[in-house]
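Pair request: fold both.
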Amino acid sequence: MLLGFPLLSLAIWVPILAGILVLATGSDRNAGAARVIALAGAVLGFAVTLPLYTRFDSLAGGFQFMEFAPWIGSFNVNYYLGIDGISLLLILLNSFITVLVVIAGWGVIKERVAQYLSAFLFLSGFMNGAFSALDALLFYVFFEATLIPMFLIIGVWGGPNRVYAAVKFFLYTLAGSLLTLVALIYLYNVSGGSFSLLDYYRLPLSFPAQILIFIAFFLAFAVKVPMWPVHTWLPDAHVEAPTGGSVVLAAMMLKLGAYGFIRLSLPIVPDASYYLAGFVIALSLIAVVYIGLVSLVQADMKKLIAYSSISHMGFVTLGIFIFNVNGMEGAIIQMISHGFISGALFLCVGVLYDRVHSRMIADYGGVVNTMPVFAALFMLFAMANVGLPGTSGFVGELLVILGAVKASFWYAAVAATTLVFGAAYTLWMYKRVVFGAVANHHVAALSDLGFREFLVLGLLAVAVLAMGVWPNPFAEVLHVSVSDLLSHVSQSKLP
């Protein structure tokens, strides 16, 4: 609560209410009104999150902007919200990406326009709820609610195999989450009837109980990240999803898994987190190397970027579980950077697909000759994906590697291979699509970016460069929150 305004509630409910208004416009005869209302709701939803940053006290520990109201009194379930520096950045990223997705789909989606736009607005509100919930059951409700809009986005507006991809996405992520609910109910009982996460952080749990709870959390969050080997739903979901769905899936929904590790696993079960860290690190390094190699052989641009996301998220989980400041801050900054870069790359593929209706690399060549502005922006995002200094992709990867060196030289050596593999698959794709002579009449007929496309990609380009050149505004809000988290986890009784 700030100056009488419940900012976190506004961040959650403004996009949801806007989504309801968009649905109320009805059929596609009112598509223009639906687009205007959706854009207004997304912009307002982003605007109400800005005071969270400007008023955030980066020197204060604990949670800020806290809100509390009874919800289900008989079970002591409360509408309990609050954020630290970690959740602050994710809320800002989510609200920003929602604006871009609404603009990006402005003239592309022709059928069920209101339903399409409202799904993204609902999804934005649900994710902000998950990032700000301090009640365990409230977190679980928002966490699971995100599945519904994305299931519809893939299943209704996706490609030829959209139903298969949507069902696979839903089943994987739902099945992984069911044991989490069991763990939360157990914690509710041992805490004396509380769903407060802050109460869970102080519970003196036995080591066997911590191991079982960690496994329950891990199954949910590892699927959501996704970590190897439970990653197979992601390429299918990305390939079949519409461009906006791929953007939000990569930029935001994957972050829910990593956020779950940070907000639930590490502080609630620190002993188990330490004990099983080597296992998580091993899976993370496999993702970095193996999935990087898998990316090299992809013929579909969307599938290549999807596998690239798995590899980069392996960097995130590595940074989280090496338990030092550089690694943790690098992981969080990598999450924000990956949101910008992966979203931009999927939008670039969407620009080409809208014109040629193909995602296959072999169907392109010489795009720079007909789309020079697009080629320049695409190059920037490709270089950021590689981790070029001066772009946002460099900052997080450097911090994680520095943190990994402190934990083990070999962790850092294996993790650093992502710089090689990332350059190989990203730049090879870019070369085949953009450089050379005009490959065919489809490429020859291409037109360069329109205003709407340039606006969306231009804003992401500014974000990628700003974070790469001046990362301090992103990093300074993290220092105290990360230090507090690591201090709490370091109280683990294990060496």
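--- second member of the pair ---
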Amino acid sequence: MSQVKGLCVMDVDGTLILEEVIDLLGREAGREEEISQITSRAMRGELNFESSLRKRVSFLEGLPVSVFDKAFDSIHLSPNAQIFISILQKNGILVGLVSGGFTPIVARLAKFLSISYFSANQLEDKDGHLTGKLIGEIISPEVKKETLEQWREELKLSKERTVAIGDGANDLLMLKSAGLGIAFCAKEVLKKEIPNHVDKRDFLEVLPLIDCLE
């Protein structure tokens, strides 16, 4: 790809993939119901994202790090996501992933989809087991927005040449910061604020909205 014409930053859990990885990990810890209830409330904007994430991660204490292999094998890309990303890349639009999920999953997805830009949360492990704690910067709604802006700056792109796609309340700031924010199969809290939304889970439905980058 010779010239970068634009940037499309995508959320991962519930957007690029069908599942919420934290819920899959919760299943392995025997805490799926508690975790998924907190996840749903956080995505609707009813809970502070960072504190709710720390609470959910605490339930994962003691899981072996090999749990990520099982979780990765359990996830599914949203319909036509791979084709969508490939079309963008062939047209000079760089794709980045920014996720409130976890690096061991997001890094593998990025490699599989030939995506070089990604950012996600890191879980602490000790002696091959999760400690139930996060390390490093938390990918909060504010950090999602800042990450998009940082990548945009690095690529020397105008705001108008950036797209952001997400589904939850924690994506709102990022979508508002992009030239084009797209609420994809999104929670009502996002759809109220973002005029462009796709309600059918098919990434080919998103393509017509990105004409501005031609």
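Observation on the second member. The longest strand covers residues 93-102.
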